[in-house]
Amino acid sequence: MTTTVVPTLTPSRLGTQTIPLPSAPEAPAHARRATVAFLHRTRPALDTGRHDDALLIVSELVTNAVRHAPGPIALTLTTTASTLEIAVTDCSRIAPAPRRPDLTDGTGGMGLHIAEELGVRIFSEPRPGGKCVHASFEDA
To answer: Which domain range does residue 47 map to?
Structure first.
């Protein structure tokens, strides 16, 4: 009799994934689905109770890229022993800046305020042909 041992698949502690996204209205939903899959494959240093916070930040950053940067967008997710890093690269050279939220016309302005409320560190770095906006969840 042959015994087959099937290894238990456990999520990897560390990982990185880059997802190319269209600059189109469906990009935020695609980015959220990819993030859910990434969070299930890895064990980020992010309490599972904060996964919805990460999805909200992904959605906000990708929505901003679609709204303000024509052209290709990429979402990169990285987990380390102490952080979950969300990075959205786009082709606009204009760094995000806080502005007064528009609560009447729905034109936005809430993303950076939401990140601040959630204790997420946001920063932008210039890249050739655009920028990369980072959101860092640390030891949550």
So the answer is: 15-138
Nearest to 61 by CA among 12, 10, 121: 121
Q: Which of 111, 113, 31, 120 is nearest to 84 (CA)?
A: 120
Domain count, the chain: 1
**Does the pLDDT at position 124 exceed 50?**
yes
- Beta bridge partners of residue 18, listed in sequence order: 76
Beta strand spans in 41-94 (E): 73-79, 83-90
- Identify the CATH number of the domain in which residue 24 sits: 3.30.565.10
Count Cβ neighbours within 10 Å for each residue of 2-34 and write b for 16 or more, e otherwise: eeeeeeeeeeeeebeeebebebeeebbebbbeb
How many Cβ atoms from other residues are within 10 Å of residue 45's Cβ?
17
Q: Would the pTM of this model clear 0.90, i.e. be above it?
A: no
pLDDT at 11: 53
Query: Does residue 4 fall inside a structural domain?
Result: no
